[in-house]
Write a structure and sequence with these properties.
6-stranded antiparallel beta sheet; 266 residues; 2 domains; alpha+beta; 22% helix
Length: 266
């Protein structure tokens, strides 16, 4: 199997080969036709390791999906094309931090989730590069609360904003994702805190102009369900800076030039 650096129109596919795309790879893959059937993968002993890998990837894929579904519409618009596959791979790597057989290892987000700190949802506009203001993230009085504080800053000097942008908005979501452990009796993975998985709290700034004058200081608290979040749960603080252009009396989201990252996993 090999990658093709050329465009589809330039590629001549040899007899017995096929072309296809994979998430996370921006070029086509050329490979021989054929391969194991779905039935063979499910039953043959030689594919046991593949089945075990699929179990871990299945949980990681579900975690990535839950995280993305917990984002606001505006935040989701910032995500680049292959972010789902990249995020799944990051979650899958957490299983490797624990001992045990592949396909039974736990995925402890509460223990290893910090390894996803700094994950970028739009690699073309890294969050820390387009937003240079100092801000503070502090824990609240109980687990499941976060306090954000933005001292006054001058937007025009602070942001690396796209051409034509007139306004900006800061959004943050604190998302709870449960740890997952393998249940030997059930033969599959189960969440430690099912009722909290995918719950979130939100902070939204006002729509602010990109000017040369300082903003007012901004402070806000994010809380999930107004309750103490138990152990066995990773708290993902996702922060985004969105740029907008005023057009015909409406704000147009410049999502491709906006940035978002997993700022911290608590």
């Amino acid at each position: 199997m090999k990658e093709s650096p050329r465009t589809p129109l330039e590629i001549e596919i040899p007899k017995g080969y096929r072309r296809y795309k994979l998430k996370g790879i921006d070029r086509e893959i050329i490979a021989k036709k054929g391969g194991p059937t779905a039935s063979q993968i499910k039953t043959k002993a030689s594919y046991k390791e593949l089945r075990n890998n699929q179990k871990e990837f299945g949980v990681a894929s579900m975690m990535a999906k839950t995280l993305r579904q917990s984002l606001s519409t505006g935040m989701s618009e910032i995500c680049e094309t292959y972010v789902s596959g990249k995020l799944t791979a990051q979650f899958r790597n957490l299983a490797k931090m624990e001992e045990g057989k592949t396909g039974t290892r736990p995925l402890f987000l509460s223990k290893h989730g910090h390894l996803l700190n700094g994950f970028e949802f739009n690699s073309k506009a890294p969050y820390e590069k387009i937003f240079g203001a100092k801000y503070f993230v502090k824990p609240g009085s109980q687990r499941g609360q976060v306090i954000l504080h933005f001292p006054a800053f001058i937007p025009e000097k602070t942001f690396k904003s796209p051409k034509g942008a007139t306004n900006f908005k800061i959004t943050a979501r604190l998302i709870a994702l449960s740890d997952y452990q393998f249940d030997q009796k059930a033969g599959g993975y189960k969440p430690v805190n099912k009722d909290l998985h995918g719950k979130f709290g939100t902070y939204d700034s006002a729509m602010l102009p990109l000017l040369k004058i300082p903003t007012e200081p901004m402070t806000g608290m994010i809380s999930i369900d107004n309750r103490i979040i138990p152990e066995g749960t990773g708290l993902f603080l996702v922060m985004a800076v969105s740029f907008y252009r005023m057009e015909n009396g409406k704000f147009v989201h410049l999502c491709k030039e906006s940035g978002m990252q997993i700022q911290k996993v608590l």
